[in-house]
Queue: 4 jobs
Job 1
Amino acid sequence: MSQAASSTSSSERPVVARRLLLAGLAGSLAGCGFRPLNGPPAAGEADIAPELAAVRIGRTFGRTGQLLHQALDRRLTARNRTAPAARYELTVSPLPAYEALGYRRDGAPTRVRMVITAPWTLQTLSVPARPVAAGSARAVDAYNVVDNEYFASVVSSEAAERRLVEQIAEEIVLRLALSLREGGAA
């Protein structure tokens, strides 16, 4: 066996071992009844994807609101490309906040913590509207402010904002799916 072939196979061993471990974990979780909430329904269980696709997202404001609206829309219609009639309205109000964590000797910030809190409500579109679920999602991230590189700092802050928005959208959709599955559906 050549030197190159042995080094390649040894570098692939951790990847193969990780895949086998993940497959084993997935198999053991499947045996205990675990399955993804937004996955295909089990036998005799209603599919939650059409209920999620029937959620209309209300107006959001600002750049953070726009990013959150897009992230929510991707998740709500992920498995159901046909647009059913909207039966619910999701109202979300993302509130970003910034806090300086580190400072240079001259007082300029070197690290910034970004926190986005997003209170949300889901209600029916019937008249009168009936509340179905409500909650608040929160995510925290931080980024460095690089000296003399404004562009790098802006890119870092935008990347942090996108990560936070994705986390919040994931949490909101998960909680919506739980609420609709538990019988909150109209």
Job 2
Amino acid sequence: MADNEFSHRIDPRAVDTRPVVLEADETERAALAKRFGLVSIGRLTATLALEADGQAVTAKGRMQADWIQPCSVSGEDLAQSADEELDLRFVPARAEPAAPDEVIELEEHELDEIEYEGQTFDLGEAVAQSLALAIDPYATGPDAERVRREKGLSDEASSGPFAALAALRKD
């Protein structure tokens, strides 16, 4: 399995009480920015306390990040940040994968489990995915309304689900 841009592999047998601090360097931040369609990532850090329960590991703590992304309307640079609480649980992959048509029912405590294969799990990838979840793909900047008006997208009739059909009808 290839490691990702912010790979920090953890062996459950080596988990102790010291907090794990992950901080993405410039190269890692640039690669993650490209992966997530961002202009740049100025900071990505996570401080997590790990607790092992056999091969399962719980990671609790905080992720903090600052990034620049394009406004979803105007395309101009938009500064964003996140300060998120993380509560992750890594568990060994199930021995036998489910059949394609098999219905699997998960208990509530299983919903946030991250399965891993082999002897280690990638804590850095989990933090990177947490960042991806924190990014608002439809974030808008201060000029968004002006651009909407200029493009004729400021009211529901001109930007709603039937706007394209209405435009065809006019032709």
Job 3
Amino acid sequence: MIAQRKGNPTLEILTAAARGSYGVLAVIVYNVEQLTALVRAAEAKRSPLIIQLFPSTLIQLPSLVFAVSAAAKIASVPISVHLDHAQDEAQIRQCIEESPFDSIMVDMSHYEKEENLSKTRELAKLCHANGIAVEAESGRINGDEDGIAGTGNLEGLEYSQTLLSYRNADDILELLTTAADVEDFIEVEIDMLAPSVGNIHGDYGARGPHLDMARLSSISHQLKGRAELVLHGTNDFEPELTKECIRAGVTKININKLILQCWNDHLAANAHKFSVTRLIDGGIAVLQPEIERWMDIVGSSGKA
């Protein structure tokens, strides 16, 4: 049985986004300072928001998820708490029992397809029994991201090439989400699907991202609302490409470096000059308007 949309914060946020044809930022946080900037931005823009944590953060800062959950509960706008790229089965089971996540990405995409489906099915049932919505990754979104077991780059292929330049390569096409993949994951009863359409984890290089938009639109039409469409691999995205993905049906837009780079730049430029308190205040002051800018871009401002 899939998660009940009514009462699940992540699914309620995404259902409203699908109905209103806008996107919702799902932003990774690494500390409470970034959490503060996110919540302030969401409230300032009256925007829904999904706050995400990496599995590695649960080990580095085990109390952060509880701070995120508390902030989400007292916020004046809808905010949900999501575990991104959960790949360790034991950790997922522990999070289901002990952590206040509204949704979990059960990421078994580093396994071959049948094992991916089998493991996802088993863990999805457990999540749903506890009221937690489930996201999964179909196809294989190549590249690597800090703290995540990635598929790596295909030998001999530069991902700065356009998708068109390698569309006839069988090894690339095998990584992309197909119509059959969509039905397989729907049968597993997931709530959110992150397809592979030429997007990658990490940086795209000088040429930038080139997605198979026809494939993305086709996947959206095939889903017919049975699961929400998620976009991973947004590093280096320009606003217009992001808007194009939303027009194609994407509701959940995973964000990391695209927004957080300004935070990193602030620390690099000022760590040797300012006290910790000034660094924190300055970082929040830099990050909050960048979050607000992207809320305007994806169309979620004013929707809460």
Job 4
Amino acid sequence: MDESKRSAFDEDGAVLIEGCLNAEQLAMCRQVFDWGIENPGPNAHSLFDGSVQRSHVDNANPFAKGRLDELVASLPFGQLFADLWGSKHVWYFAEELFLKQGGRAGRSPWHQDTSYLPWGGKHFANAWISFEAVPKRNALEIVRGSYLGTRHDGSTFQNPDDPTEPLHGGGVWPRLPDIEAERRIDPNAYDILSWATQPGDVLLLHPGSLHGGGAVDADFPDRHTLVLRFFGDDAVFSPLPDHSDSGFTPAGVLYVEELASLKAGDPFRAPCFRQLI
């Protein structure tokens, strides 16, 4: 691991690893991705389903867990994250699938994954694997260094007039900033990171980073992205608000029973998560 990559992730919360996966490894990822799209789990949701226009997201599909656990054991992420974080151990959490096709699916709203998952500490990362060459204008965007700052409330993602409508409410966490509205007034209001990527490149993102984007358009109509999530020694359980009417528990909505015994500040561990190192 190049020291500049370690520093970039530590300071910025995101870094691009070019050529991380070879053609064989990428093909294995795509096979698991395609299976998941055709066999969605209980957390999947879709918009504009059809042969021409489709937007589909799935998260921690229990039917795919065996396939994903086997896949990550054959990929270089265990040693990569151990080197990136300086962590003795690395575990795999779960996957997320993003499919946008038809050239009309808009950008994903700005958010932090830590608004929806009970994660604290520096040793968390999402590995973004896109199977197309993604132009910079269609790429994921990240607010540089934001994972080191405020943990915001999530968005309901249900109000098109207010992308910051609070998920949990109650004032426990600050409301999300309306980043796109502020950028329309001042394009330099935020220090934004994004990269054009080629197949085999992997974007590493701390889930506490404010991130969003990844729209498709007429010139880049389809995007297939597999996100694999990992954690290391400095990963702790950091519960969500327990007063919420959102349907989320303090453990979120994934692996709730497996995480039920953890208290704030406990090491984030459970036997269900595949240990890679």
